[in-house]
Prior knowledge:
Blueprint lengths: L1 E7 L5 H14 L4 E5 H5 L9 H22 L4 E5 L5 H10 L5 H14 L5 E5 L3 H8 L1
Parallel strand pairs: 1-3, 1-4, 2-3
Helix pairs in contact: 3-5, 4-5
Amino acid sequence: MKVIEFIGMPRAGKTEQINRLSKYFESQSIKHLIITDREVEKEINVPLTKAFEYNILFYNKILDKLLTAIYSNKYEFIILDRGFSEADVWFNSEYKQGNLLKEEKELSLNYLKNLRKYIDTSILMMVNPEVTIKRHI
């Protein structure tokens, strides 16, 4: 069983590439699961203004879904739409904006480094910022 995470800018094409990979896996009868950030966000009732609590819940929910899938032995591949490897960006950004204390940032980053052991492959999706804005509009 392999875990692939897609990381990168919003509107960079992560979901589109995940959907293409999923269609390929289906055509080859490869059992796989997709865990999306959107499905995880729906389960969180903590406001975004509580950055530390929100992010810890977010990544713990991903971890719970990931470990449940791993231990089920049902899948050859698990695909994460936003995994653990880009968390540094979010926690550092929240810290710079004054939404996290330094201790909270350090605790979070150390915790998430440990979770990267579950990831076999990270795929970074980048796009020109102007393209991102056009796609958002």
